[in-house]
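Today's session is about reading a structure prediction critically. Students often jump straight to the picture, but the first step is always the sequence itself: look for stretches that repeat, for charged clusters, for runs of hydrophobic residues. Only then move on to the predicted structure, which in these notes is written as discrete structure tokens rather than atom positions. Here is the chain we will use throughout the hour.
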Amino acid sequence: MTYLVTVFLPLALAFILTIILAKVLIPVLTRLKVGNTEREVLESHQVKNGTPTMGGLIFLVAIIVTGLLFGGKYPHIMPVLVLTAGFGVIGFIDDYLKVVLRRSDGLLAWQKFLLQVVVTTLFYVYIRFYTDVTLELRIPFLSEEMVSIGVLALPLLYFAVIGTVNGVNFTDGLDGLASTVTVIVSGFFLVASFLVDGGIEPLCAAVCGALLGFLLFNCYPAKVFMGDTGSLALGGFVAGAAYIMNMPLFIIIVGLIYLVEVISVILQVGYFKMTHGKRIFRMAPIHHHFELGGWSEVKVVTVFSVITAVLCVLGICAL
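Below is the predicted structure for this chain, in token form.
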């Protein structure tokens, strides 16, 4: 009965809500011409031009509604929802500026970073003053005892949260990639929450259900893209779930794909500037490097998802 209430019920509810919302919102987004614009260098992506974006609203609403229904009994859900919704709002503003107001850059880099700092601060204040969650760390593969890193804990929180959010954002570049990788990662956090008594099982299940529903419309060939609304929100969930269970170091394992995507961009940009025009990869983020090397979108998504699944099994072993 416990699994029925904490896993299958929120999973099914979020799944059904996502499908209903998708059926309603995708035609609305299409009529409003809230379409995606692809870079010219990716010729195979030109057919995607005009595909409605901001679809992250679909699963974000489903996750928030489901999470709130279980938040009373599972209070640790609430700070994770704050982080998820907060970053979703930042993504929505960015998407709105880009695809509705036609400002190609959306939020300026400093504006986006400042908003990310504000949302991360709200999350810290919530867990510091309204929960029993500490910033101690579980160390993968070592003792079950948690470790305190003192004054370094707060800078690590900002680095881990903002880094994870932007990693998920960079991963969102192919049909179904961010959705598939993150549904696997959320499955890991669902299992981990049972193992460490994290108290966020219904929310993790809701994210799994919502993303599975969204994948019906987001897998290749996608009928809708999640946009920054969705990718930033998912990054907020991953970071929030990890911190509620004192597991930010586990993101390096189970979220390795996110990390590699970020590093590929940093290396590409840095090397380009240092060498005045030379590149390490054919294109960054790294999923485009494989695309330009001849891999199909489906192959890239499959390989990245299998790698994530293996790493999530490793993450469970690390507990």
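Discussion point for the tutorial: The chain has a mean pLDDT of 92.
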